[in-house]
Amino acid sequence: MARPREFEMESAMEGAMTIFWRQGFRATNLPELLDAMGLTRGSFYKAFEDKESVYLGALDRYDEIVITQTLEKLQGSDAPTASACLEQIFLPSATSKCGCFICNAMVELGPDNPKVAAKTKAMAARLKSGIVRVLEHHGIGETPQRRDELGDVVLHLYFGHQAVGKSGAADKDWGATLKRILGESD
Amino acid sequence: MARPREFEMESAMEGAMTIFWRQGFRATNLPELLDAMGLTRGSFYKAFEDKESVYLGALDRYDEIVITQTLEKLQGSDAPTASACLEQIFLPSATSKCGCFICNAMVELGPDNPKVAAKTKAMAARLKSGIVRVLEHHGIGETPQRRDELGDVVLHLYFGHQAVGKSGAADKDWGATLKRILGESD
DNA sequence: TGTGTTAGGAACTAATCGGTTCCGAACTAT
DNA sequence: ATAGTTCGGAACCGATTAGTTCCTAACACA
Fold first, then answer.
1. Long-range CB contacts (< 8 A, 24+ apart) of B171-178?
2. N or C: at which end does chain A have fewer Cβ atoms within 10 angstroms?
3. What string of pLDDT tens digits covers the 186 residues of chain A?
Protein backbone atom coordinates (compact mmCIF):
# COMPACT_ATOMS: atom_id res chain seq x y z
CA MET A 1 0.00 0.00 0.00
CA ALA A 2 2.71 2.42 -0.96
CA ARG A 3 4.86 3.43 -3.85
CA PRO A 4 6.16 0.34 -5.67
CA ARG A 5 9.81 0.02 -6.58
CA GLU A 6 10.65 1.18 -10.07
CA PHE A 7 13.51 -1.17 -10.84
CA GLU A 8 13.27 -4.85 -11.73
CA MET A 9 14.75 -6.94 -8.96
CA GLU A 10 15.77 -9.70 -11.36
CA SER A 11 17.56 -7.53 -13.87
CA ALA A 12 19.29 -5.68 -11.04
CA MET A 13 20.57 -8.96 -9.62
CA GLU A 14 21.71 -10.04 -13.07
CA GLY A 15 23.61 -6.79 -13.38
CA ALA A 16 25.26 -7.45 -10.04
CA MET A 17 26.08 -10.98 -11.13
CA THR A 18 27.70 -9.75 -14.32
CA ILE A 19 29.92 -7.13 -12.72
CA PHE A 20 30.97 -9.29 -9.76
CA TRP A 21 31.64 -12.16 -12.13
CA ARG A 22 33.86 -10.01 -14.31
CA GLN A 23 35.60 -7.89 -11.68
CA GLY A 24 35.35 -9.73 -8.40
CA PHE A 25 34.14 -8.40 -5.06
CA ARG A 26 36.86 -6.01 -3.96
CA ALA A 27 37.62 -4.65 -7.42
CA THR A 28 33.98 -3.60 -7.82
CA ASN A 29 33.22 -0.39 -5.96
CA LEU A 30 29.77 0.82 -5.08
CA PRO A 31 29.32 3.30 -7.96
CA GLU A 32 30.20 0.58 -10.47
CA LEU A 33 27.89 -1.88 -8.79
CA LEU A 34 25.05 0.63 -8.69
CA ASP A 35 25.58 1.44 -12.36
CA ALA A 36 25.56 -2.25 -13.29
CA MET A 37 22.38 -2.77 -11.31
CA GLY A 38 20.76 0.36 -12.71
CA LEU A 39 19.87 1.99 -9.42
CA THR A 40 21.03 4.64 -6.98
CA ARG A 41 22.44 4.44 -3.49
CA GLY A 42 19.08 5.16 -1.91
CA SER A 43 17.26 2.38 -3.70
CA PHE A 44 20.16 0.04 -3.17
CA TYR A 45 20.28 0.35 0.59
CA LYS A 46 16.51 0.27 0.80
CA ALA A 47 16.32 -3.02 -1.05
CA PHE A 48 19.53 -4.75 0.09
CA GLU A 49 21.53 -5.07 3.24
CA ASP A 50 25.01 -4.31 1.97
CA LYS A 51 27.54 -5.04 -0.74
CA GLU A 52 28.38 -8.48 0.59
CA SER A 53 24.79 -9.71 0.70
CA VAL A 54 24.36 -8.63 -2.92
CA TYR A 55 27.50 -10.54 -3.80
CA LEU A 56 26.07 -13.66 -2.18
CA GLY A 57 22.85 -13.06 -4.08
CA ALA A 58 24.84 -12.70 -7.28
CA LEU A 59 26.39 -16.11 -6.63
CA ASP A 60 22.88 -17.52 -6.24
CA ARG A 61 21.82 -15.94 -9.53
CA TYR A 62 24.86 -17.44 -11.20
CA ASP A 63 23.83 -20.83 -9.87
CA GLU A 64 20.26 -20.36 -11.05
CA ILE A 65 21.11 -18.96 -14.46
CA VAL A 66 24.56 -19.87 -15.71
CA ILE A 67 25.11 -23.20 -13.99
CA THR A 68 21.57 -24.29 -14.72
CA GLN A 69 21.99 -23.40 -18.40
CA THR A 70 25.28 -25.28 -18.44
CA LEU A 71 23.70 -28.37 -16.94
CA GLU A 72 20.83 -28.19 -19.41
CA LYS A 73 23.26 -27.86 -22.27
CA LEU A 74 25.14 -30.92 -21.04
CA GLN A 75 21.99 -32.90 -20.42
CA GLY A 76 20.25 -31.90 -23.63
CA SER A 77 23.25 -32.43 -25.85
CA ASP A 78 23.01 -34.94 -28.65
CA ALA A 79 26.78 -35.21 -28.92
CA PRO A 80 27.81 -38.75 -29.86
CA THR A 81 30.39 -39.08 -27.11
CA ALA A 82 30.89 -37.87 -23.54
CA SER A 83 34.02 -35.95 -24.51
CA ALA A 84 32.23 -34.17 -27.35
CA CYS A 85 29.49 -33.25 -24.91
CA LEU A 86 31.78 -32.07 -22.13
CA GLU A 87 34.02 -30.24 -24.58
CA GLN A 88 31.31 -27.58 -24.81
CA ILE A 89 32.17 -26.12 -21.44
CA PHE A 90 35.82 -25.80 -22.46
CA LEU A 91 35.13 -23.95 -25.69
CA PRO A 92 36.65 -20.45 -25.98
CA SER A 93 33.21 -19.05 -26.71
CA ALA A 94 32.00 -20.35 -23.36
CA THR A 95 35.06 -19.11 -21.52
CA SER A 96 35.63 -15.37 -22.09
CA LYS A 97 37.84 -13.17 -19.93
CA CYS A 98 35.53 -13.43 -16.92
CA GLY A 99 36.45 -16.99 -16.11
CA CYS A 100 34.11 -19.02 -13.96
CA PHE A 101 32.36 -17.12 -11.18
CA ILE A 102 32.57 -20.14 -8.87
CA CYS A 103 36.30 -20.42 -9.34
CA ASN A 104 36.79 -16.66 -9.04
CA ALA A 105 34.82 -16.54 -5.80
CA MET A 106 36.68 -19.52 -4.33
CA VAL A 107 40.02 -17.91 -5.03
CA GLU A 108 39.15 -14.38 -3.95
CA LEU A 109 37.00 -14.98 -0.88
CA GLY A 110 37.04 -18.69 -0.10
CA PRO A 111 39.56 -18.58 2.74
CA ASP A 112 38.04 -15.52 4.44
CA ASN A 113 34.31 -15.86 3.95
CA PRO A 114 32.64 -19.07 5.16
CA LYS A 115 29.39 -18.23 3.38
CA VAL A 116 31.17 -17.86 0.05
CA ALA A 117 33.15 -21.03 0.72
CA ALA A 118 29.99 -23.02 1.47
CA LYS A 119 28.08 -21.62 -1.50
CA THR A 120 30.84 -22.20 -4.01
CA LYS A 121 31.42 -25.73 -2.75
CA ALA A 122 27.75 -26.51 -3.23
CA MET A 123 27.76 -24.98 -6.71
CA ALA A 124 30.86 -26.95 -7.66
CA ALA A 125 29.18 -30.12 -6.43
CA ARG A 126 26.15 -29.39 -8.60
CA LEU A 127 28.32 -28.85 -11.63
CA LYS A 128 30.21 -32.04 -10.92
CA SER A 129 27.03 -34.07 -10.62
CA GLY A 130 26.01 -32.79 -14.03
CA ILE A 131 29.33 -33.92 -15.44
CA VAL A 132 28.97 -37.33 -13.83
CA ARG A 133 25.50 -37.65 -15.34
CA VAL A 134 26.99 -37.13 -18.79
CA LEU A 135 29.49 -39.88 -18.09
CA GLU A 136 26.69 -42.20 -16.98
CA HIS A 137 24.64 -41.41 -20.05
CA HIS A 138 27.48 -42.37 -22.35
CA GLY A 139 28.47 -45.41 -20.39
CA ILE A 140 31.84 -44.03 -19.34
CA GLY A 141 33.39 -45.54 -16.22
CA GLU A 142 32.76 -49.02 -14.96
CA THR A 143 31.70 -48.13 -11.42
CA PRO A 144 30.07 -45.17 -9.69
CA GLN A 145 33.37 -44.54 -7.92
CA ARG A 146 35.20 -44.41 -11.20
CA ARG A 147 32.64 -42.04 -12.70
CA ASP A 148 32.91 -39.86 -9.60
CA GLU A 149 36.65 -39.79 -9.98
CA LEU A 150 36.45 -38.84 -13.65
CA GLY A 151 33.88 -36.20 -12.75
CA ASP A 152 36.38 -34.69 -10.33
CA VAL A 153 39.03 -34.73 -13.01
CA VAL A 154 36.84 -32.91 -15.53
CA LEU A 155 35.65 -30.43 -12.90
CA HIS A 156 39.13 -29.55 -11.71
CA LEU A 157 40.38 -29.40 -15.28
CA TYR A 158 37.54 -26.99 -15.97
CA PHE A 159 38.42 -24.73 -13.06
CA GLY A 160 42.08 -24.76 -13.99
CA HIS A 161 41.17 -23.96 -17.57
CA GLN A 162 39.02 -21.03 -16.49
CA ALA A 163 41.69 -19.69 -14.15
CA VAL A 164 44.40 -19.83 -16.81
CA GLY A 165 42.03 -18.30 -19.33
CA LYS A 166 41.82 -15.13 -17.25
CA SER A 167 45.43 -14.44 -18.12
CA GLY A 168 44.57 -14.91 -21.76
CA ALA A 169 46.30 -18.23 -22.27
CA ALA A 170 46.19 -19.87 -25.68
CA ASP A 171 42.99 -21.60 -26.64
CA LYS A 172 43.95 -25.17 -26.05
CA ASP A 173 41.76 -27.76 -27.73
CA TRP A 174 40.50 -29.89 -24.88
CA GLY A 175 38.33 -32.13 -27.05
CA ALA A 176 41.03 -34.62 -27.97
CA THR A 177 42.44 -34.54 -24.46
CA LEU A 178 39.08 -35.26 -22.87
CA LYS A 179 38.63 -38.10 -25.30
CA ARG A 180 41.81 -39.76 -24.11
CA ILE A 181 41.18 -39.12 -20.44
CA LEU A 182 37.73 -40.68 -20.68
CA GLY A 183 39.22 -43.64 -22.52
CA GLU A 184 37.16 -43.16 -25.65
CA SER A 185 40.11 -43.85 -27.93
CA ASP A 186 43.80 -44.83 -28.01
CA MET B 1 78.70 6.94 0.44
CA ALA B 2 75.82 7.41 2.76
CA ARG B 3 73.77 5.64 5.36
CA PRO B 4 73.10 2.05 4.28
CA ARG B 5 69.63 0.59 4.50
CA GLU B 6 68.91 -1.31 7.69
CA PHE B 7 66.48 -3.89 6.36
CA GLU B 8 67.30 -6.96 4.33
CA MET B 9 65.92 -6.57 0.83
CA GLU B 10 65.51 -10.33 0.41
CA SER B 11 63.60 -10.95 3.62
CA ALA B 12 61.42 -7.93 2.92
CA MET B 13 60.53 -9.29 -0.51
CA GLU B 14 59.81 -12.69 0.98
CA GLY B 15 57.47 -11.04 3.46
CA ALA B 16 55.72 -9.30 0.59
CA MET B 17 55.50 -12.59 -1.27
CA THR B 18 53.94 -14.34 1.72
CA ILE B 19 51.24 -11.76 2.38
CA PHE B 20 50.34 -11.23 -1.28
CA TRP B 21 50.26 -14.98 -1.77
CA ARG B 22 47.90 -15.46 1.15
CA GLN B 23 45.69 -12.40 0.78
CA GLY B 24 45.98 -11.21 -2.80
CA PHE B 25 46.75 -7.71 -4.04
CA ARG B 26 43.64 -5.72 -3.22
CA ALA B 27 42.92 -7.42 0.08
CA THR B 28 46.37 -6.46 1.35
CA ASN B 29 46.51 -2.85 2.46
CA LEU B 30 49.69 -0.88 2.95
CA PRO B 31 49.97 -1.23 6.75
CA GLU B 32 49.67 -5.01 6.43
CA LEU B 33 52.20 -5.08 3.61
CA LEU B 34 54.64 -2.90 5.55
CA ASP B 35 54.24 -5.10 8.61
CA ALA B 36 54.88 -8.24 6.58
CA MET B 37 57.96 -6.64 5.02
CA GLY B 38 59.18 -5.32 8.36
CA LEU B 39 59.59 -1.71 7.35
CA THR B 40 57.86 1.64 7.54
CA ARG B 41 56.25 3.83 4.92
CA GLY B 42 59.32 5.99 4.57
CA SER B 43 61.67 3.13 3.87
CA PHE B 44 59.13 1.47 1.64
CA TYR B 45 58.68 4.41 -0.73
CA LYS B 46 62.42 5.10 -0.70
CA ALA B 47 63.21 1.59 -1.84
CA PHE B 48 60.23 0.75 -4.04
CA GLU B 49 58.07 2.50 -6.55
CA ASP B 50 54.62 1.55 -5.35
CA LYS B 51 52.45 -1.31 -4.17
CA GLU B 52 52.05 -2.78 -7.62
CA SER B 53 55.76 -2.98 -8.38
CA VAL B 54 56.29 -4.81 -5.09
CA TYR B 55 53.52 -7.21 -6.08
CA LEU B 56 55.28 -7.91 -9.36
CA GLY B 57 58.51 -8.40 -7.43
CA ALA B 58 56.71 -10.78 -5.09
CA LEU B 59 55.65 -12.84 -8.10
CA ASP B 60 59.30 -12.98 -9.16
CA ARG B 61 60.35 -14.13 -5.70
CA TYR B 62 57.67 -16.82 -5.83
CA ASP B 63 59.10 -17.99 -9.13
CA GLU B 64 62.63 -17.98 -7.75
CA ILE B 65 61.83 -19.63 -4.45
CA VAL B 66 58.63 -21.67 -4.47
CA ILE B 67 58.47 -22.77 -8.08
CA THR B 68 62.18 -23.49 -8.15
CA GLN B 69 61.86 -25.61 -5.01
CA THR B 70 58.91 -27.41 -6.53
CA LEU B 71 60.82 -28.17 -9.72
CA GLU B 72 63.79 -29.40 -7.70
CA LYS B 73 61.53 -31.62 -5.64
CA LEU B 74 60.04 -33.07 -8.81
CA GLN B 75 63.41 -33.50 -10.49
CA GLY B 76 65.20 -34.87 -7.44
CA SER B 77 62.45 -37.28 -6.49
CA ASP B 78 63.24 -40.98 -6.35
CA ALA B 79 59.57 -41.93 -6.61
CA PRO B 80 59.13 -45.14 -8.58
CA THR B 81 56.45 -43.75 -10.89
CA ALA B 82 55.55 -40.44 -12.49
CA SER B 83 52.25 -40.32 -10.64
CA ALA B 84 53.94 -40.90 -7.29
CA CYS B 85 56.34 -38.10 -8.11
CA LEU B 86 53.72 -35.64 -9.32
CA GLU B 87 51.41 -36.51 -6.46
CA GLN B 88 53.70 -34.49 -4.20
CA ILE B 89 52.40 -31.18 -5.52
CA PHE B 90 48.82 -32.26 -4.83
CA LEU B 91 49.44 -33.24 -1.21
CA PRO B 92 47.44 -31.31 1.41
CA SER B 93 50.67 -30.38 3.16
CA ALA B 94 51.85 -28.67 0.00
CA THR B 95 48.52 -26.97 -0.58
CA SER B 96 47.46 -24.94 2.49
CA LYS B 97 44.81 -22.23 2.46
CA CYS B 98 46.94 -19.88 0.35
CA GLY B 99 46.48 -21.83 -2.84
CA CYS B 100 48.97 -21.29 -5.64
CA PHE B 101 50.22 -17.73 -6.06
CA ILE B 102 50.32 -18.13 -9.85
CA CYS B 103 46.70 -19.21 -9.98
CA ASN B 104 45.64 -16.54 -7.48
CA ALA B 105 47.35 -13.82 -9.50
CA MET B 106 45.86 -15.04 -12.77
CA VAL B 107 42.37 -14.97 -11.34
CA GLU B 108 42.64 -11.68 -9.47
CA LEU B 109 44.64 -9.54 -11.88
CA GLY B 110 45.10 -11.47 -15.10
CA PRO B 111 42.41 -9.72 -17.13
CA ASP B 112 43.33 -6.21 -15.99
CA ASN B 113 47.10 -6.22 -15.67
CA PRO B 114 49.14 -7.27 -18.72
CA LYS B 115 52.34 -7.49 -16.68
CA VAL B 116 50.76 -9.91 -14.24
CA ALA B 117 49.24 -11.86 -17.12
CA ALA B 118 52.60 -12.19 -18.87
CA LYS B 119 54.46 -13.10 -15.71
CA THR B 120 52.00 -15.74 -14.59
CA LYS B 121 51.86 -17.29 -18.03
CA ALA B 122 55.64 -17.60 -18.04
CA MET B 123 55.63 -19.09 -14.55
CA ALA B 124 52.93 -21.58 -15.51
CA ALA B 125 54.98 -22.56 -18.54
CA ARG B 126 58.01 -23.20 -16.33
CA LEU B 127 55.97 -25.35 -14.00
CA LYS B 128 54.53 -27.27 -16.90
CA SER B 129 57.95 -27.94 -18.39
CA GLY B 130 59.00 -29.40 -15.04
CA ILE B 131 55.99 -31.69 -15.11
CA VAL B 132 56.74 -32.77 -18.66
CA ARG B 133 60.32 -33.55 -17.63
CA VAL B 134 58.99 -35.91 -14.98
CA LEU B 135 56.88 -37.64 -17.61
CA GLU B 136 59.91 -38.01 -19.87
CA HIS B 137 62.02 -39.37 -17.05
CA HIS B 138 59.50 -42.11 -16.34
CA GLY B 139 58.86 -42.90 -19.96
CA ILE B 140 55.26 -41.69 -19.89
CA GLY B 141 53.75 -40.70 -23.23
CA GLU B 142 54.81 -42.04 -26.59
CA THR B 143 55.49 -38.72 -28.31
CA PRO B 144 56.54 -35.21 -27.24
CA GLN B 145 53.08 -34.03 -28.25
CA ARG B 146 51.48 -36.60 -26.00
CA ARG B 147 53.74 -35.67 -23.08
CA ASP B 148 52.96 -32.01 -23.64
CA GLU B 149 49.28 -32.79 -23.58
CA LEU B 150 49.57 -34.77 -20.36
CA GLY B 151 51.64 -31.96 -18.89
CA ASP B 152 48.81 -29.58 -19.63
CA VAL B 153 46.37 -31.92 -17.97
CA VAL B 154 48.42 -32.20 -14.80
CA LEU B 155 49.07 -28.45 -14.72
CA HIS B 156 45.42 -27.50 -15.14
CA LEU B 157 44.40 -30.18 -12.65
CA TYR B 158 46.89 -28.63 -10.26
CA PHE B 159 45.49 -25.11 -10.69
CA GLY B 160 41.95 -26.37 -10.28
CA HIS B 161 42.95 -28.29 -7.20
CA GLN B 162 44.58 -25.21 -5.67
CA ALA B 163 41.58 -23.01 -6.48
CA VAL B 164 39.11 -25.43 -4.94
CA GLY B 165 41.38 -25.88 -1.94
CA LYS B 166 40.97 -22.21 -1.05
CA SER B 167 37.35 -22.91 -0.21
CA GLY B 168 38.52 -25.73 2.02
CA ALA B 169 37.34 -28.60 -0.15
CA ALA B 170 37.92 -32.14 0.99
CA ASP B 171 41.41 -33.52 0.62
CA LYS B 172 40.93 -35.65 -2.42
CA ASP B 173 43.58 -38.29 -3.00
CA TRP B 174 44.98 -37.49 -6.42
CA GLY B 175 47.59 -40.23 -6.40
CA ALA B 176 45.37 -42.97 -7.74
CA THR B 177 43.73 -40.59 -10.19
CA LEU B 178 47.04 -39.41 -11.59
CA LYS B 179 48.06 -43.04 -11.94
CA ARG B 180 45.10 -43.77 -14.16
CA ILE B 181 45.39 -40.57 -16.18
CA LEU B 182 49.02 -41.27 -16.90
CA GLY B 183 48.13 -44.81 -17.88
CA GLU B 184 50.29 -46.45 -15.27
CA SER B 185 47.65 -49.03 -14.41
CA ASP B 186 44.18 -50.27 -15.29
C1' DT C 1 86.50 15.27 12.64
C1' DG C 2 83.66 17.44 9.51
C1' DT C 3 80.60 17.17 5.38
C1' DG C 4 77.45 15.31 2.26
C1' DT C 5 74.01 11.85 1.61
C1' DT C 6 70.41 8.91 2.68
C1' DA C 7 67.61 5.85 5.77
C1' DG C 8 63.74 5.76 8.90
C1' DG C 9 59.70 7.45 10.92
C1' DA C 10 55.87 10.66 12.10
C1' DA C 11 52.66 13.68 10.31
C1' DC C 12 50.08 14.94 6.57
C1' DT C 13 47.07 14.87 2.08
C1' DA C 14 43.72 14.22 -1.29
C1' DA C 15 40.81 10.84 -2.98
C1' DT C 16 37.89 7.14 -2.39
C1' DC C 17 35.72 3.63 0.34
C1' DG C 18 31.08 1.60 2.03
C1' DG C 19 27.24 3.19 4.32
C1' DT C 20 23.64 6.75 6.36
C1' DT C 21 20.43 10.53 6.57
C1' DC C 22 16.95 13.20 5.00
C1' DC C 23 13.59 15.09 2.03
C1' DG C 24 10.48 15.60 -1.84
C1' DA C 25 7.84 13.09 -5.04
C1' DA C 26 5.11 9.26 -6.42
C1' DC C 27 2.11 5.80 -5.67
C1' DT C 28 -1.66 2.79 -3.11
C1' DA C 29 -5.56 2.30 -0.45
C1' DT C 30 -9.46 4.28 1.56
C1' DA D 1 -9.66 13.71 -2.68
C1' DT D 2 -6.58 12.54 0.92
C1' DA D 3 -3.87 10.15 4.19
C1' DG D 4 -0.22 7.01 4.69
C1' DT D 5 3.74 4.75 3.01
C1' DT D 6 7.88 4.06 0.61
C1' DC D 7 10.78 4.91 -3.34
C1' DG D 8 14.61 7.49 -5.57
C1' DG D 9 18.15 10.71 -5.24
C1' DA D 10 21.33 14.26 -3.35
C1' DA D 11 24.04 15.46 0.27
C1' DC D 12 26.61 13.95 3.85
C1' DC D 13 29.57 10.89 7.07
C1' DG D 14 33.66 8.85 9.32
C1' DA D 15 37.00 5.56 8.08
C1' DT D 16 40.40 4.03 5.17
C1' DT D 17 43.01 4.14 0.88
C1' DA D 18 47.70 4.68 -1.44
C1' DG D 19 51.08 7.89 -1.66
C1' DT D 20 53.93 12.40 -0.08
C1' DT D 21 56.52 15.57 2.73
C1' DC D 22 59.70 16.81 5.93
C1' DC D 23 62.77 16.36 9.63
C1' DT D 24 66.16 13.96 12.37
C1' DA D 25 69.63 10.82 13.06
C1' DA D 26 72.91 7.67 11.28
C1' DC D 27 76.34 6.44 8.34
C1' DA D 28 80.35 6.71 4.52
C1' DC D 29 83.92 9.10 2.88
C1' DA D 30 87.51 12.44 2.84
1. B171/B92, B172/A152, B174/B87, B174/B90, B175/B83, B175/B84, B175/B87, B175/B90, B176/A149, B177/A149, B177/A152, B177/A153, B178/B82, B178/B83, B178/B86, B178/B87, B178/B90, B178/B154
2. N
3. 677 788 889 999 999 999 999 999 999 999 999 999 999 999 999 999 999 999 999 999 999 999 999 999 999 999 999 999 999 999 877 667 899 999 999 999 999 999 999 999 999 999 999 999 999 999 999 999 999 999 999 999 999 999 999 998 767 889 999 999 999 875
The domain that contains B22 carries what CATH number?
1.10.357.10
- Could you tell me if residue B4 is inside a domain? no
In chain A, residues with a C-beta closer than 8 Å to the C-beta of B158 are 160
- Name the amino acid, one letter, at B101: F
For residue A75, tell me if it sits in a domain: yes
Q: Residue A8 domain-assigned?
A: no
Which residue gives the smallest C-alpha to C1' distance to D29?
B1
Residue among A26, A124, A152 whose CB faces B172 most closely: A152
Is A71 touching B (CB cutoff 8 A)? Answer: no
Q: What is the tens place of the pLDDT at every residue in A146-168?
A: 999 999 999 999 999 999 999 98
Q: Does B161 touch chain A (CB under 8 A)?
A: yes
Residue B1 domain-assigned (yes or no): no
What is the tally of structural domains in chain A?
A: 1
Residues of B in contact with A155 (CB under 8 A): 160
